[in-house]
Every structure is written in structure tokens, then in C-alpha cells.
């Protein structure tokens, strides 16, 4: 569990106003959007995308075919941010 | 709200006790049907059906056949349900098996034959039932057939109310509405049987058919569909009606005035529904849209402006929210202002809170509750306060409220659009009501502002089944209860420990102890700031009792049972 992942968990709980759940409850590999995972919806995805762009200055292209893959779980978002910031 | 006296002679007592030669109704062709003949028909029908118990689906051409079918249901101990139509596809759609259908069906079911024999030949009439029920199918808001069951005595109370109110004004009942719906059932069937009045057996749509053989003091049970299609004066000129009723939908003012011109009196319009029975009435001689509540009925307007009804004609008395926006006049009458469909804007999209609520309530996990708008982080959020069913509680305990809410939302995704899916959820043991015993959305929104015990204590949940849990938390010095107890030596008071246990049980499982009584209470010692505490909770659904035990390093702090 990296520092970035820990930050991201807290960020998601905060920006989505998730109630009844603490950042620690979310496993970094837990699916964010599938029904057996957090079951977030498309409005939530938009919100996460915007706040990640704000917070980390990374660019997200809505035409990027890999976008869904990046947003699979906390770990994949963190990896994507690391890669883009490294560039 | 004045009480309507319960009938000492209900429908079945009247049908079984009537003189065999009493004429209950007259067919279109002028044939008189007696109480004895109806009893015989019911007896024969019961023999042919044979199987006891269960449900009988009834659709009959006339009220005599209806009476016989209800008698058969009494003899067989079956529950009668009236159908609005008798098509094969309709019966399949409501899972009514052909062998349980009684009346006039196309090629299936048991036909009712009114026999010429003067009376039933039983040695002893069937016993009167304790609390007979009658089912009606109505079309719900989504257009799907919806079964609504009413105790027969509630329907009888309504028929008797009108019997008393219209006493002496009519000696014959005829009508253009079906007796398969509640309005026709009440006025074309129940009211004549209970008041000892002859009735037309068949519904008639043509004015000639309606008034064939009818005396001048006839009660005409009509509807807007009929009264907006009045025959020309040369046809109708010979007919008279002493009372004309209209219900089932709004009647245009012109039609009311036209009826007044022709019959010398406007129709008595009745506002009501299958669920509520009659609510209010009006009789318009001029443009005056106001309704007056029936004497036995109490109407009110809730915080959303919608008409609510408490009435002896509602099973249990109500209140029932009608979904109509209403406004009171100074004289106590009210005006309808259209449907209260509670449409709000969420994420720029129009969302019907009624629709979201109905969808949530249709879920197996949800027993009660409603959708509402709450505010958080400066934004309005679609939210839901819900009481889970037993199955829902088990899931809630297993998943925790966050994942439970997410699964609930996911399983409704095929019905609700994203904007229609609640973002904030509260699962509670019961929907709180305000001082007027009403559900108020503004009050319920405050539920979302209160601190939740789980957020305050942030416990480690070591085990949580339905309904046993073990939690560990640190009694941080900044907990609100340490303030003021006592200066210099803060402790977590016993009352707060009881309160915490009760609140956690509701947040974890949406249950509440039956009462606030605490028994078997033991306080061994106080809890001090910074201490790590274990809490065991156990709730018994059958007794409604919550048992709690606080320990610290295996040393007992306190225990007790609430409820």
C-alpha cells in the first residue's frame, strides 16, 4: 500500500461524500465500479476524474480507450498517476 | 372524525337471513331474483367448485351472480377477489387459475346459474365468518394490476353511511358502472342488499336500459363517462332519478349543470379511491369546485401540500396520502390542485421522488421508507431513509450499511437511472414521525445531519452477524460525553453507554429495542478517556431486546438489557 494509494482512498471517500465507509474499508484492489465492488456510477467516475486532475495535475483524455482500465481500482489509478507524473 | 357504527347485520348476515321471497334484484328482462334463489345458486356453485379454502376470482355479469359467488366463497372458506376484467390473458397475468375463476369467463371457470328453486336446501346455513376480506384489483401507478384487500366490514360501514345519508330518498338502484370495482360494488350491490332496496341486476349504459322498469325515486349510480354522454331530451325526458351519483374521475362542470337541468338536481360527486374509499363530496349548482369531507372522514394537508385522509373506510383508519395537492378554504372545504408527484431536480434531471420511493419499496430488502432531498457539502443529494425487511436486515448486518446501500443501488440499476439512484442512505428501525404523527421530509432530512455513532466512535468491527456483533473502540478524550462528566475526572457515564449501544444497534442492523427500559443493569466501573473498550451487542428479534456488554481487557465494565 503506497502513500499515493492511501491518499487516493481518502480522496474518493471525501469527494464522493461516501458515508458509512472509512478509507481503510476500501481495498486498493477492490473494483470501484462493478456490482460486487463499490458499485460507483458514471457520475461518481466523472467526479473522481475531475478531482484527480485537480489534485495531481494529470491529464485524462476521455477518448483514451484505456480509461476504464485505469479506473478499475485504487491501485490502477495510482499506477496511472505515477506513470504520467514520471513523464 | 365521528365513528360509524359497525353493522350488526353485515352482507353475509343479510344474504343468509333475508326472507326467501325477498326480491334482491331485477334483470334487464324484468325477471325478479329472490334471496332464496341466490342462496340456492351459491350452494350449488360451492358444490361444483368443491375445493375448500384458497382464493376465488370473481367476475359476474350481474349483482345476483355476485351475491351467489360470495356465498360460495363463504361456504368454501375461500377468499373472494373481484376482477376488473375476465380475459384469459388478464387472468394469466395475475396468476388466477381457471379452476378458481367464478362467473362469466370466456370458455373457462365456473358459471353462476341462478336457480328457479325457492331456497337453499341446507340443514343449517353456513356460519358467519369472523373477519371476511374482499380483494379488488386496481391498476397501480405503473399500470400494473395491483391487489388491494379490504375487510368487508369497512366496506359495509361505507355503504351504511350512504344508506343513512340518503335514507328515504330512493326505492330502487340502477347504475352504469361495474360492480367489479369498489364504487359500483358499494352502491349497486352492498347498499341495496344492506338497505333492503331492489336493484337492477345488470349494469346498463343506455339510458333506456338504465331506467327500464325504474320508479321515479331511483338512485342512479353513474360516472363521468356516462354523465358526459347524456341522451337527447326526447329520450331522457320521461325518466326521473331522485339521486344521481358520480364517481371514478373528475366530472366536467358542464356535465354537472346539464344533469341539473334535466333531472332537477346536480349529481352528488364523490371523491375517493379503492384504497381510501369515499373521501369527500360536492353537488355543484354553479362553478364551485370545493369538496367537503364526508362527516366520518378527517382530511388534512401534509407538509408537502398533499391531501391525507383518516377514515373508517380505510382499513386501520389511515392516514393515507392521496397524492393530490389540496388547499383548504376558510369554511373547511378544500380544492384539489393536481397531483403531488414530488418531482425534484437532481443533477439537472427531473426525478420523481414518488417513483424512486415506489421502486425502493418494491425491493425484497425494503419494507418501508421514502426518498428525499438532503444537503451535503453545499449540494443537494438524492437520499433515502429506509426500513429493511428481515432479509434486508440480514444483508445489512453482513455487508455493512455502505456496501448494503451499494448493492441495493446496483440491483435497482435496471429500473432507476443514475440520477434517480439515492446517494445518501439511512437504514432505520422505523420511519420517525413528527408531533402530528406525520412523516415530514424536512424533518427526515435532519436525520442525515445528526452525527452517526459509527462515525463518532470509528469502531473496529470484529464480528457482525444478524444480530450479534463485537466492536472495539477507543474512548477518545474528545467524545462529547466526556465534557462535563466530571470536571477534572472525565468519565463515560452509564446513560451514554446505554445510548451508544442502542444507536449502534440501529446503525448496524436497523433495529431498535421495543422500549427504553433497561433491566439486569450492572455497572462495575467507569470508562476513562483513552481507554480501549470492547462492546458486545446482541439483539433478539422475537423479544425486541438488546443486550450489551462493555469490557476492557477482559474486565467487565458494564452490561444490561434494553427493551
Task: Describe what this molecule looks like in 3D.
The complex is a heterodimer of chains A (87) and B (563). Chain A is built from four helices and no strands. Chain A has a single domain (3-86), classed as Non-ribosomal Peptide Synthetase Peptidyl Carrier Protein, Chain A. Chain A is globular and about 35 Å long. The two termini of chain A are 22 Å apart. With 87 residues, chain A is an all-alpha fold. In chain A, helix 1 (3-15) packs across helix 2 and helix 1 (3-15) packs across helix 4 (74-86). Chain B has 563 residues and is an alpha/beta fold. Among the domains of chain B are: 343-447, GMP Synthetase, Chain A, domain 3, CATH 3.30.300; 453-562, Thiol Ester Dehydrase, Chain A (Roll). Chain B contains 15 helices and 29 strands. Chain B has a nine-stranded mixed β-sheet. Chain B has a six-stranded antiparallel β-sheet with strand order 24-25-27-28-29-26. Chain B has a five-stranded mixed β-sheet with strand order 5-3-4-6-7. In chain B, helix 2 crosses helix 3 and helix 5 crosses helix 6 (182-195). The radius of gyration of chain B is 30 Å and the shape is elongated. Residues 1-8 of chain B have low confidence and may be disordered.
Amino acid at each position: 500500500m503506497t502513500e499515493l494509494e492511501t491518499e487516493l482512498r481518502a480522496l474518493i471517500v471525501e469527494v464522493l461524500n461516501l458515508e458509512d465507509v472509512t478509507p481503510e474499508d476500501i481495498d486498493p484492489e477492490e473494483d470501484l465500479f462493478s456490482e460486487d465492488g463499490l458499485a460507483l456510477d458514471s457520475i461518481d467516475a466523472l467526479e473522481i476524474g475531475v478531482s484527480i486532475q485537480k489534485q495531481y495535475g494529470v491529464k485524462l483524455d476521455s477518448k483514451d480507450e484505456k480509461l476504464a482500465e485505469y479506473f478499475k481500482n485504487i491501485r490502477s489509478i495510482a499506477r496511472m498517476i505515477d506513470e504520467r507524473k514520471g513523464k | 372524525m365521528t365513528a360509524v357504527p359497525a353493522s350488526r347485520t353485515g352482507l353475509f348476515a343479510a344474504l343468509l337471513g333475508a326472507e326467501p321471497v325477498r326480491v334482491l334484484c331485477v334483470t334487464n328482462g324484468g325477471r325478479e331474483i329472490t334471496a332464496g334463489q341466490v342462496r340456492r345458486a351459491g350452494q350449488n356453485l360451492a358444490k361444483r367448485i368443491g375445493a375448500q379454502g384458497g382464493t376465488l376470482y370473481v367476475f359476474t355479469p350481474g349483482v345476483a351472480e355476485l351475491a351467489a359467488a360470495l356465498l360460495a366463497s363463504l361456504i368454501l372458506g375461500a377468499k373472494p377477489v373481484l376482477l376488473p376484467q375476465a380475459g384469459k390473458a388478464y387472468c394469466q397475468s395475475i396468476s388466477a387459475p381457471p379452476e378458481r375463476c367464478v362467473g362469466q369467463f370466456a370458455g373457462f371457470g365456473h358459471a353462476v346459474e341462478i336457480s328457479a328453486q325457492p331456497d337453499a336446501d341446507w340443514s343449517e346455513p353456513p356460519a358467519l365468518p369472523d373477519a371476511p376480506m374482499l380483494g379488488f384489483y386496481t391498476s397501480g401507478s405503473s399500470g400494473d394490476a395491483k391487489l388491494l384487500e379490504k375487510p368487508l366490514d369497512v366496506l359495509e360501514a361505507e355503504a351504511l353511511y350512504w344508506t343513512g345519508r340518503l335514507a328515504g330518498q330512493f326505492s330502487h338502484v340502477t347504475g352504469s358502472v361495474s360492480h367489479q370495482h369498489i364504487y359500483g360494488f358499494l352502491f349497486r350491490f352492498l347498499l341495496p342488499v344492506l338497505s333492503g332496496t331492489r336493484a337492477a341486476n345488470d349494469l346498463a349504459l343506455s339510458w333506456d336500459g338504465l331506467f327500464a322498469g325504474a320508479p321515479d325515486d331511483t338512485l342512479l349510480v353513474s360516472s363521468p363517462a356516462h354523465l358526459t354522454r347524456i341522451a337527447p331530451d326526447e329520450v331522457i325526458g320521461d325518466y326521473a332519478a331522485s339521486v344521481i351519483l358520480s364517481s371514478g374521475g373528475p366530472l366536467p362542470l358542464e356535465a354537472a349543470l346539464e344533469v341539473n337541468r334535466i333531472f332537477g338536481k346536480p349529481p352528488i360527486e364523490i371523491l375517493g379511491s379503492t384504497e381510501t374509499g369515499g373521501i369527500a363530496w360536492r353537488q355543484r349548482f354553479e362553478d364551485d369546485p370545493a369538496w367537503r369531507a364526508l362527516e366520518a372522514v378527517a382530511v388534512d394537508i401534509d407538509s408537502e401540500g398533499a391531501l391525507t385522509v383518516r377514515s373508517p373506510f380505510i382499513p386501520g383508519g389511515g392516514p393515507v396520502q392521496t397524492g393530490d395537492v389540496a388547499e383548504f378554504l376558510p369554511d373547511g372545504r378544500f380544492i384539489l390542485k393536481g397531483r403531488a408527484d414530488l418531482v425534484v431536480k437532481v443533477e439537472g434531471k427531473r426525478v420523481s421522488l414518488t417513483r424512486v420511493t415506489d421502486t425502493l419499496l418494491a425491493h425484497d430488502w425494503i419494507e418501508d421508507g421514502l426518498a428525499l432531498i438532503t444537503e451535503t457539502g453545499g449540494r443537494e443529494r438524492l437520499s433515502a431513509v429506509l426500513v429493511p425487511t428481515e432479509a434486508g436486515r440480514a444483508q445489512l448486518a453482513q455487508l455493512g450499511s455502505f456496501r448494503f446501500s451499494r448493492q441495493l443501488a446496483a440491483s435497482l440499476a435496471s429500473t432507476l437511472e443514475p440520477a434517480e439512484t439515492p446517494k445518501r442512505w439511512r437504514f432505520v428501525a422505523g420511519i420517525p414521525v413528527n408531533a402530528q404523527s406525520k412523516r415530514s421530509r424536512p424533518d427526515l432530512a435532519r436525520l442525515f445531519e445528526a452525527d452517526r455513532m459509527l462515525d463518532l466512535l470509528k469502531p473496529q468491527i470484529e464480528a457482525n452477524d444478524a444480530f450479534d456483533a463485537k466492536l472495539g473502540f477507543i474512548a477518545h478524550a474528545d467524545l462529547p460525553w466526556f465534557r462535563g462528566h466530571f470536571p477534572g475526572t472525565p468519565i463515560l457515564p452509564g446513560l451514554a453507554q446505554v445510548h451508544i449501544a442502542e444507536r449502534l444497534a440501529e446503525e448496524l442492523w436497523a433495529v431498535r429495542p421495543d422500549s427504553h427500559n433497561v433491566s439486569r443493569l450492572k455497572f462495575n466501573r467507569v470508562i476513562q478517556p483513552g481507554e480501549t473498550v470492547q462492546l458486545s451487542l446482541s439483539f433478539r428479534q422475537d423479544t425486541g431486546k438488546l443486550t450489551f456488554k462493555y469490557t476492557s481487557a477482559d474486565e467487565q465494565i458494564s452490561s444490561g438489557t434494553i427493551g
